[in-house]
Design goal:
Largest sheet: 11 strands, mixed
Helix content: 40-55%
Number of domains: 2
Order of helices and strands: HHEHEHEHEEEHHEHEHEEHHEH
Radius of gyration: 21 Å
Number of strands: 11
CATH class of the largest domain: Alpha Beta
Shape: globular
Length: about 350
């Protein structure tokens, strides 16, 4: 029965969805197209979402917002780091089939590899035309789409660092004066950290991390671990997520953030449907929603970067006003595996 539903929806969606595209900027999944996809998704009743895009709390909020809009479809949320999620998917594929329907990784190289192996479902959401123009068509073939943004800057504990001593650029972070005071994540576990390490390597060479190692940084796994270390007073400064620092400060924690003069690292995180997943229609509907204004509004509640111009950010500086450091997908695919090995050689873990 599910196969018949998929064929029916596949035949009907192109015509129904095309009718909604009266204006690219105003395009939204609506009317008969939305109803058709929703009814097919309700027959499946659920989907499983592996995500490294958000904190566990925010991921649950995103799932809850989707379920409020589309009653009868349960989202099973598995929040973990990018590489753990990818490893889990790999194991499932070897065991005979994926348990995950939608994969949200912070490491775009995962999608390049999955696409090359024919392990992603091609699907171009109507709502993909509604996001900010620079975020469209990250994959021209439509196998994965940008659904989350992140900014990595220098974060710090205000109780431990005087204003006049604040680092202003990335090289300042490896100054000997910060010995035993820096916190970083691990590129083998976090997609955010992997891209940050690769960006620093591209700008300053591996000597940057040889200097960092001499400073004896505290190394966590997820980039979110750096915030925990700062809040606990275990470290003074970090290469961390600006959004989580802003959120923590709003809650009363003594956290500050700096956009380095030599550029902030912008992470574009994509999301795709896994080929052969159990709940294809629910996965498609979730992809549509993830690129909607409703999803952007939910992200902003927890200080995430909105994907739509109509949704203002909550705190921080708009991306357009920052010096942005953005790697190309091909650079990430080639470079991240190399820096993981270098990291282990330099830091011993």
């Amino acid at each position: 029965m599910r196969d018949v539903s998929r064929r029916t929806v596949s035949a009907m969606l192109p015509v129904a969805l095309a009718a909604t595209l009266t204006r690219q900027a105003a395009a939204q999944l609506a009317g008969d197209a939305e109803k058709t996809l929703y009814e097919a998704a309700k027959k499946e009743g659920q989907l499983t979402w592996y995500t490294a895009h958000y904190s566990a709390e925010t991921a649950e909020k995103m799932a809850a917002a989707f379920m409020r809009k589309y009653p009868g479809i349960k989202v099973n949320v598995v929040r973990t780091t990018a590489h753990v999620a990818y490893q889990r998917l790999t194991q499932e594929l070897k065991a005979g089939g994926p348990q995950v329907d939608v994969l949200g990784s912070t490491d775009i190289s995962h999608y390049l590899e999955l696409k090359s192996k024919g392990l992603l479902e091609k699907y171009i959401p109507v709502n993909a035309a509604t996001v900010l123009e620079p975020l469209r068509n990250v994959d021209p073939d439509g196998y994965h789409h940008i659904t989350s943004l992140g900014v990595i800057g220098i974060t710090y504990n205000k109780n431990k660092v005087k204003a006049e001593d604040l680092p202003k650029s990335w090289p300042d972070l490896v100054d000997p004066k910060w010995k035993n005071q820096v916190s970083v994540g691990h590129p083998a576990f976090s997609g955010y950290v992997g891209i940050w390490v690769l960006t620093m390597t591209k700008m300053y060479g591996w000597s940057y991390f040889e200097k960092l190692e001499k400073g004896k940084p505290q190394i966590g796994r997820s980039i979110q671990d750096t915030l925990t270390m700062l809040k606990a007073g275990e470290r003074s400064v970090a290469a961390g997520s600006v959004a989580t620092a802003i959120e923590a400060a709003a809650k009363g924690d003594p956290l500050g953030w700096i956009y380095p003069s030599d550029g902030t690292v912008v992470i574009v995180a994509t999301q795709g449907i896994i080929k052969g997943c159990k709940n294809l229609n629910a996965a498609k509907l979730f992809q549509e929603w993830s690129l909607s204004e409703d999803a952007s509004k939910t992200m902003v509640e927890d200080y995430g970067e909105p994907l739509h111009a109509s949704v203002p950010p909550k705190g921080g500086t708009p991306l357009k006003d920052l010096k942005q450091l953005i790697l190309k997908p091909e650079e990430i695919l080639k470079g991240v595996p190399e820096i993981k090995e270098k990291w282990r050689d330099t830091f011993g873990s």
